[in-house]
């Protein structure tokens, strides 16, 4: 059997990892060929391709397992690598590059255990077309290569933002960076200490701002988004999770939203912190989402996803401390608004302070 996996990042690599586990666990399993299609290196996508050690996971080590049978494997790995010791390892926010190295290590080990019954081939190109051919699938790459397989796994991660937000074409601007996670994309900006405007105020902005601010002592970063919302910080220590009983939380957005708000508020009253309530809801997300019709889902994405996201997808405590200090000193400014136009100016350009 041949399985084509589109995407070599964390999602695609985990697919190959678990296929290798299945082959290794069954001596009678038929030989399996896996073809991985991606123009970039393995586990080198937006989330884990960074090499900056200041870019941290936004989930503690205890939540970053790759094997469900080894609940604290990454915790143990961090200890063995000397990143952290003792019980602190469970709530350690590791550099993302180290988790990528950990995943590559575990993937290589799983492939070795599978032996010759598993072959993995990498095609360094982008997939541009997919079609059903008979009982199988056909993938066409950007250079015209045709790959036929029995099964297809799309593991492309989240879609890119693109340039649709811009009121004008910025593609000819040498200092415009559409995707900061492309290899060495930030290099030209990091090479000087000029001020930088970042579009977006989420976790990507946090990482980009941390890199920019440490590369230039006099640099100023301004971040703008429609809501001007920053991700909240994780607590300084582990607080646990309180999973709600969702059996009676309703079947429409208004009822579910009210029930979740009641749950989080109750946990905050009991424990003095809202985070365990929000983190407990995470275990019910798929169930609650399945109850919504298409209209409610669109409403959530349009009107509520931003407020939920800043509470659910939080900054590591140390990143939050850096952001707070940069805002206190005026080196990082976060605003709400929209980009309505651009004008040329002489570079380098610095505003009066």
UniProtKB/TrEMBL annotation:
SUPFAM superfamilies (UniProt xref):
FAD/NAD(P)-binding domain
Q: Which Gene3D superfamilies match?
A: FAD/NAD(P)-binding domain (3.50.50.60)
Query: Could you list the residue ranges that cross the membrane?
Result: none
Q: Name one Pfam family in it.
A: NAD_binding_9
Every FAD-dependent urate hydroxylase HpyO/Asp monooxygenase CreE-like FAD/NAD(P)-binding domain range: 5-157
Annotated InterPro entries:
FAD/NAD-bd_sf, HpyO/CreE_NAD-binding, L-asp_N-monooxygenase_NS-form
The molecule here is called: Uncharacterized NAD(P)/FAD-binding protein YdhS
């Amino acid at each position: 059997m041949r399985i084509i996996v589109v995407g070599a990042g964390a999602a695609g690599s985990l697919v190959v990892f678990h296929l290798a586990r299945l082959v290794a666990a069954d001596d009678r399993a038929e030989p399996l060929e896996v073809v991985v299609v991606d123009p970039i290196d393995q586990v080198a996508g937006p989330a884990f391709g960074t090499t900056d050690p200041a870019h941290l996971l936004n989930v503690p080590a205890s939540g970053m397992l790759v094997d469900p049978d080894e609940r604290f494997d990454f915790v143990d790995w961090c200890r063995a690598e000397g990143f952290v010791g003792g019980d602190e390892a469970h709530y350690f926010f590791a550099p993302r590059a180290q988790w990528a190295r950990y995943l590559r290590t575990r993937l290589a080990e799983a492939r070795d255990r599978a032996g010759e019954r598993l072959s993995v081939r990498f095609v360094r190109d982008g997939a541009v077309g997919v079609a059903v051919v008979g009982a199988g699938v056909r993938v066409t790459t950007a250079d015209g290569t045709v790959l036929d397989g029995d099964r297809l796994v799309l593991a492309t991660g989240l879609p890119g933002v693109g340039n649709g937000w811009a009121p004008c074409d910025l593609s000819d601007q040498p200092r415009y960076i559409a995707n900061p996670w492309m290899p060495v994309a930030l290099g030209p900006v990091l090479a000087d200490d000029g001020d930088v405007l970042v579009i977006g105020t989420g976790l990507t902005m946090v990482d980009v701002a941390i890199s920019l601010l440490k590369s230039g002592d006099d640099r100023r970063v301004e971040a703008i988004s429609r809501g001007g919302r920053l991700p909240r910080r994780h607590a300084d220590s582990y607080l646990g999770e309180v999973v709600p009983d969702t059996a009676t939380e309703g079947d429409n957005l208004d009822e579910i939203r009210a029930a979740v708000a009641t749950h989080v508020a109750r946990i905050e009253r009991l424990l003095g912190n809202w985070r365990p309530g929000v983190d407990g809801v995470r275990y019910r997300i798929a169930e609650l989402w399945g109850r919504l019709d298409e209209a409610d889902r669109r409403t959530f994405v349009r009107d509520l996803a931003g407020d939920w996201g800043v509470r659910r997808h939080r900054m590591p405590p140390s990143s939050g401390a850096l952001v707070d200090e940069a805002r206190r000193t005026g080196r990082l400014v976060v605003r709400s608004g929209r980009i309505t136009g651009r004008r040329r100016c002489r570079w380098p350009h610095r505003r009066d302070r």
